[in-house]
Amino acid sequence: MHLLQLALFVFTFVLTPIAASLETRSSQQEPHDPCASRSFHHPHPQHTPAVSARINSPLIYSKYDESSTNYRINSYPHLTSASGSWSWVGNDWWTSGFFPGTLYLLHERSQKCPGRTSVNWLARARKWSEGLVPLESSNTVGHDTGFLAYPFLSELKVNPNNATAKAGVKAFAALLANRFNSTVGCTRSWDSSYPDFLVIIDNMMNLELLYEAAKLFPGLEKYYDIAAGHASTAAMHHLRPD
């Protein structure tokens, strides 16, 4: 799974840490079943990554089933309270794409591991993505526009010809690209007055949108250069020499 929806992936599909290093996980390792609820047998146990039983826990499906059954127009869950209930926010917020993005991940999981859930996660993912469409023309989330595009990128994996998803990716990518300054060499994180140009490392998580748009749409190859340019500048200024 890609870096986008990092928080969603961890929240939805919890995996135990893999102790073996990349060097020890050789090509001799048997492919494991992503639907397995326990560690698979291997002639070299020390090379075997553990698969958490929670990866297909019914609790995951039931919680998202309950929270996504009743669609809320332009409203999305953001945080949970001490009691465990959701705190909801309007659609113009940086985490709004995470919830429908998670529903797409649940659809993917249900396809790989059939029989674990009867919910039509794809239908729900598409429905909950509708509230993000109005943000394609303008929004206030700054560089996190890339997060808003996550559900539409996921939809194009299911149906590459989905016109709504293609329009969404293209529009959000344009908004993000417009935040790029060639003098600075970065996309701006949040709006600020001259001479400030705010750039945080989190911008890196939004570059995928530019890379994907560059691949999807002829004539937008410049988005690749923008993303690569930002990454190079960030590597120079956001990372210590060590």
Automatic annotation (TrEMBL):
Q: Where is the signal peptide?
A: 1-20
Q: Carries keyword Hydrolase?
A: yes
What are the BP-aspect GO terms? polysaccharide catabolic process
Keywords, ordered alphabetically: Hydrolase, Signal
InterPro entries, sorted: 6-hairpin_glycosidase_sf, 6hp_glycosidase-like_sf, UG_Glycosaminoglycan_Hydrolase
Q: Where is this region: Disordered?
A: 25-50
An MF annotation (GO) of this entry? chondroitin hydrolase activity
Q: Which Gene3D superfamilies match?
A: 1.50.10.10
- Give the matching PANTHER family: HYDROLASE, PUTATIVE (AFU_ORTHOLOGUE AFUA_7G05090)-RELATED
Protein family (similarity comment): Belongs to the glycosyl hydrolase 88 family.
Q: What is this protein called?
A: Glycoside hydrolase family 88 protein
Q: Which organism is it from?
A: Serendipita vermifera MAFF 305830
Q: Tell me the organism's taxonomic lineage.
A: Eukaryota, Fungi, Dikarya, Basidiomycota, Agaricomycotina
